[in-house]
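Quarterly update from the structural biology core.
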Amino acid sequence: MKASVFVGVSVDGFMARLDGALDFLPADGGEPHGYEEFMAGVDALVIGRNTYETVLGFETWPYAEKPVFVLSSHALAKAPDGARMEQMSGPPAQIAAALAARGIGHVYVDGGITIQGFLRAGLIQRLIVTRVPVLIGTGIPLFGATSRDIVLRHVLTRSYASGLVQSEYAIVAAGGDPGGASHGEPSP
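Predicted structure, tokenized:
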């Protein structure tokens, strides 16, 4: 199974304010920058509880009818009508194996803790990071501590009229959990 990240961050590397607010991101995603095309290529989403609770506050469910797997061992608020949400818990490798066994070929991983866990486990193959032209000083970082380097291969960088700068990377090698996933060259 392939796992990708598509995320917006402040130039200083924060994906949300400390309270989870996303008010520094462009309203409605800003100008088109590949999100719709990215979403068309994924089978499902894996998100953390905090991300789930944040998107429940949006006016509309942002994932249409894509299956959304929310990682949490705590009870979750009910999903909106029409949303395909399922709760799961366990380590990233177990989640990935369960989804692959269900025939899911490509997942979009979102949420700080979830992204960090999947990266540490060596389960992410593609990172698309869009930097928003703002410094917020403090917040929830996109990347946390790692026990080893995670080597990336730059694929391309695009800039947009609004000042957004988007870089795409392939994961070349990552330090995963002992006995974990393969860490070879990712497939395109």
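Strands lie at 2-10, 14-16, 44-48, 67-71, 84-88, 106-110, 126-132, 140-141, 151-159, 165-173.
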